[in-house]
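User: Sequence recovery, please. Input:
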């Protein structure tokens, strides 16, 4: 029996999603305590965004260990932590209970197919998740669909440089570190994708994020051969790349983060 293109695509997505579940499920607790994920200058923007609404319904898309959920819950009527990993969602639910945040619910699923009604959420936020999505334009269309008219969407993620050499380096070390990585997108790529979906971008901010090498590797339990490959690449890449990423002797480096806020 011949496999149709649609069936092949479904198999590929399911395989990738299974890989993500395997990769992140066993590390759920580490992401809860990770300083990179638990803290960030963008959280003040997140809180300000949610507080523009009176008791909003918030979607934390690709919630991971739930940091966006925890930051927004005090200002929301209900927060939905949505993630592919059951283990991550269990961490969110357990932590919400410990924090007495009883307005947080958890739902499992993928970004490209949201099991929510049209115009359901006032605010949709995704942080450090989009680079794992198979089809970002489709996920953005889903975000637009479930967001109320004049609701707000915020996407925060590692940003790829516009320079092809710097971009190639980043994508390479990301894939070596975590084989569920799909792509980090540049500012111009995000702008184009948001425009095509019909979002009106209100604000774009970028900042630098320092990634301590050992914790960056340990969070993903990256196998030793891949760690060695990353270090070799860091050491032997051109000086202009070393300067751009501020690569240190121990492998610690700095990358770019983008935060986009748009109106649906």
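Assistant: Recovered sequence (264 residues):
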């Amino acid at each position: 029996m011949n496999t149709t293109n649609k069936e092949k695509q479904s198999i590929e997505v399911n395989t990738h999603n299974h890989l993500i579940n395997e990769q992140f499920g066993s590390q759920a607790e580490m992401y809860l305590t990770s300083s990179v994920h638990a803290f960030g200058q963008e959280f003040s923007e997140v809180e300000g965004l949610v507080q523009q609404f009176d008791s909003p319904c918030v979607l934390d898309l690709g919630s991971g260990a739930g940091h966006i959920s925890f930051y927004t819950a005090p200002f929301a009527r209900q927060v939905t932590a949505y993630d592919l990993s059951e283990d991550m969602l269990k961490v969110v639910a357990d932590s919400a209970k410990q924090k007495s945040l009883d307005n947080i619910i958890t739902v499992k699923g993928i970004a490209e197919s949201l099991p929510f009604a049209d115009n359901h959420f006032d605010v949709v936020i995704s942080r450090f998740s989009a680079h794992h999505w198979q089809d970002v334009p489709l996920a953005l269309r889903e975000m637009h669909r479930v967001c109320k008219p004049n609701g707000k969407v915020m996407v925060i993620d590692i940003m790829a440089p516009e320079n092809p050499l710097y971009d190639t380096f980043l994508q390479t070390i990301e894939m070596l570190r975590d084989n569920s990585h799909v792509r980090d997108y540049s500012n111009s790529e995000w702008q184009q994708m948001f425009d095509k979906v019909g979002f009106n971008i209100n604000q774009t901010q970028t900042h630098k994020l320092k990634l301590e090498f050992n914790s960056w590797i340990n969070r993903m339990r990256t196998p030793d051969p891949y760690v060695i490959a990353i270090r070799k690449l860091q050491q032997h890449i051109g000086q202009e790349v070393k300067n751009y990423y501020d690569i240190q002797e121990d492998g610690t480096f700095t990358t770019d983060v983008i935060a986009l806020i748009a109106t649906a």
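The radius of gyration is 18 Å.
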